Every structure is written in structure tokens, then in C-alpha cells.
Request: fold
Amino acid sequence: MSITYRGTVALITGASAGLGAEFARQWAERGADLVLVARRLDRLEELAASLERQHGIRATAVAADLARPGAGEALRAELDARGIRIQTLVNNAGFGSHGPFLEQDPAQVDRMIQLNVTAVAGLTRAFLPDLVADGRGALVTLASAAAYQPTPAMAVYGATKAFVLSLTEAIAYETRRSPLRVLAVSPGPTSTEFFDVVGSRDAAVGRMATPEQVVTTARRALERSSTPPSVIAGLGNRLSALASALAPRRLTLAVAGRALKA
Reply:
């Protein structure tokens, strides 16, 4: 089933690079107007101008630090003031770190939880009533293959993504009688700036995917006649998640610890 998003507006967080920029490209190709959100306004404006030229859509760049408390409501208020209504929300912004939890910077831990968890919940709560009422778009969140088992050396990151996965699947069930499509997409390692922020390639377990592959997986899941509540990008990641679900918890933990060089 091919879906057009013409006549709708998609809000994409973390849109200045990587998966966020790819979501913007694929939604613009299908006619959606865009609201692109990240901290780096110059990159957002460059991407917005390019997509407007290529696809004849309208793209609005909004600089925002979503790790600040109340970011979701603040962004909703700003878009209300501009007269912009959202039909699709892509919660893509997030980051990770690598190393023993004992050695993590407390400020960085707080920021990760604020961005990966609190901002996702806040943005979703702020916009979900409109998404459900309109029903033409989708709610997409970026979970991770790390959500399916404990992740030693990435303890906080894995826990935040487990939250995102659980939250999204629950919302998918709660809104099942509406036409809104709700999906958590869980990629494995992907060729983005993620590992530059992490500061280590030890977290890159498995074959590296491209942003196009991950976003195409998400889009095709949304285009199914019955959208699943979640999808894992990449066969190897799907098999790994299945093995983690079937294996004893202690074994899963040990395997993950060795893979992540904890």
C-alpha cells in the first residue's frame, strides 16, 4: 500500500543529520510539509531549503534544545503561535554514551534521560491528541536494537530505548481504534553521527546500516494494511532480539556484555 502524505505536516526531531534528515527526505518525497527541529539551525535551514526546491513542499526550521525541561509543551506553543498543525510526529532525537555506568558524567546521564525519555514522552503527549483526531499521519519513535536486552557499557542508553519501545507499543494499542499509525522502529548500528557522540566504535555491534535502509524499513511498516506496533531494522538485529527473548536472562546479559566490551 503506497501512502501519500500530501496535505499533512510532519514534525521531525533531530533532523539536522543522519536518520532525522533521511526521514525528512522520504516524507518530503511523498508530499509532506515539514517542521525540522534540532539545535543546529544552520543545518536545518540548509536542509529545509534543499527539500523545498526539490519537492515543492514547505519546510520550517525550528532551533530547539529538547533536553530542556518542558521542551515538548514549549515547541507545541511555538507551533500553535505560527498556526502550524502537525499530523505526523517522528521522535528521532537522542544520543548515547559508552563506558561503565560508574564512570559516566552525572550531567550527561541526566541529559540523556531528559532527551531520550522525557522529551519523547513530553512531545508525544503534547501532539498526540491532534494526531489521533486527524488520523492521516503517524507517530514514529526511534527505539533501538539495544532496547531488547540489558546493555552493559551502555546501561542508560539501552534503558532509555527500552522505555521508548514500551511506551510506543502501549500507545499503539491504546489508539488502535483510530486511523493513526503508531510505530517504534529499532535500528542496530547505523552510519550516522551517533558514534561520534558516543566516542567509541565498541558500541557498533553487527552490520552497519545506512539511514536510507532504516527509514525505508519504518516507512514500509507504516504502509502495511495493518501497521505493527514495532519493527526491528535488519535481519541480524531481528534474530538477535529473538535469541535474547528466548535465552536465559543471565546468558543474554553475558553475551551483550562481551559484545559491547563492557
Observations:
- The first strand starts at residue 9 and ends at 13.
- Residues 106-134 form the longest helix (29 residues).
- The two ends are 43 Å apart (CA to CA).
- The chain has a mean pLDDT of 92.
